[in-house]
Amino acid sequence: MAGSHVLQLTAVAAVVGTISYVLYTIIYNLYFHPLARYPGPKLYAVWRIPLILDRISGNSVRTIHAMHKKYGENVRVSPNEISTISPAAWKDVYGYRRNGHGGFDKDTIRFYRRDPIGNGATAMISEDDNNHARQRRIFTHAFSDRALREQEPLLKHYTNLLVEKLKDASADGSRKVDIVSFYNFTTFDTMADLTFGEPLHLLDNMDYNPWVRNIFAGIKYVAVADAFRGYPVLHQIQRARAPKDLKEKREYHLKFCHSRVDRRLEKEETDHPDFWSLVLKAEGAKGLTRPEMHVNSQLLMTAGTETTATLLSGLTYYLCQNPDKMKKLVDEIRGSFSHPDEMTTVTLPRLEYLHACLEEGLRIYPPVAVGLPRIVPPEGGDIDGHPLPGGATIYFTHYPAYHSEKNFALPDEFHPERFLQGEDPRFANDKMDAFNPFSNGPRNCLGKNLAYHEMRLILAKVLYSFDIELLPQSQNWTNHKVYTLWEKPPLYVKLRPLQQKA
Ligand code: HEM
What we know:
The chain is α+β, with helices and mostly antiparallel strands. Helix content is 51%, strand content 8%. It has a single domain, classed as CATH 1.10.630.10. The protein has helices at residues 2-32, 42-46, 49-56, 60-71, 89-92, 129-140, 145-170, 179-196, 202-205, 210-227, 232-240, 246-266, 275-283, 290-303, 306-321, 323-336, 352-364, 398-402, 448-465; strands at residues 74-78, 81-84, 105-106, 176-178, 374-375, 381-383, 386-388, 393-396, 466-470, 482-483, 485-486, 492-497. The protein is globular. The structure holds protoporphyrin IX containing FE. Residues 124-125, 136, 299-300, 303-304, 307-308, 311, 367-368, 372, 437-439, 443-447, 450-451 line the site of protoporphyrin IX containing FE.
């Protein structure tokens, strides 16, 4: 009797304790939390679970976009998390640290991973500031203007191969072509040659190899797993539910990447400059450990492939949907060159409309659509004068920022003219200081120059060689999910090859 009484009391205490905890959490998060002053949906302010559900369903970017439309520039998207679309973020959050202000650290609790593969090394993107500065200085040699000029023949080789393969695929001009795959084949082949000193042969074989398929699957898996980070129990459950063959695939992936890096580093000489020849020429073998070379190779292969292919896919879609803009671009490209061989790192940047189209593509369909989270330092900080408590997470979410009327006129429409100063008065008040698709400050994109040249070269060669028409099944192509990067379905187009001058 006494035993069951104790049990009953324990059960009642547990229920009362749980209800009290839940009530305390609700009241604290809504009214007393230091972020309580920021607007946002109440449910999201109380629990992180709604945001986790949005992230695992690939809808977080669109949900956050809707929140910014309703609540303004700075929105509380979970109890301890702010999304901002304010241009001030580029100085206050991502900029250089000045007098203890700005330049917040990367959020390694919920997003960036230290020692991600257990070899004791961390890639520069996730490193602390000191190690990041050391690694980045070494890699800078491989991303300078001079390096790009040395890499030019390699980029030319793969873009020529792309055009050749597109000609084969379009043959009589009636077949449908999934242009997303072709852009991916090209950027992966190029980046593999720069990172491993040997090609992947995707364009040759016109197919993804298992290693590249693993990368795509891995990006999605990590994005879903990251949604649970910071919640150890949920994170463990999620890991336990991971597909059984995941470990095997991961090991295959690492072996593939690392063996190629090792093979490349064993070579004294290479017949063309790749990242390592430029790094080693400047620094010798000092400065980076072999495990650091391994993890950074993985970084280069993900950061430098999907991103550029995504921009090219999105831009191709918007150009096809806006025939007047497509005509203007095609006229500029075909009127500027009498042969594609004339397209170089010197001549291509002179094409103003091509540059404006790339910028507008990066705005309307930013390859990095999500926010890249930073942690407010213990002493606190601010966004545009609004105080932020130490330990809070904050990020500039690219897609909502670029689709907000607060920053851009007619934000959902494709108008490259907004990037041509004085061309169209409708865009005179666009906040260009909000636009940083490659991020800003000391942790911005290291591959920006390379990315611009690659995107210019690929798009210019494709539009020089083909007329492109969007097929009906791809009319609503942009309506897809985001797992850190866009989950792009095929983009079906019809290509009509043009007669080339000899
Ligand atoms: C349209 C194409 C691209 C876009 C939009 C883009 C965007 C970005 C962004 C937003 C970041 C900052 C990440 C953060 O804050 O965590 C970044 C970092 C980085 N990107 Fe890119 N990227 C592109 C192409 C490339 C290419 C072609 C490479 C060449 C390998 C590259 C290499 C890197 C590297 C190494 C970092 C880390 C830099 C550091 O931590 O210092 N990216 N990129």
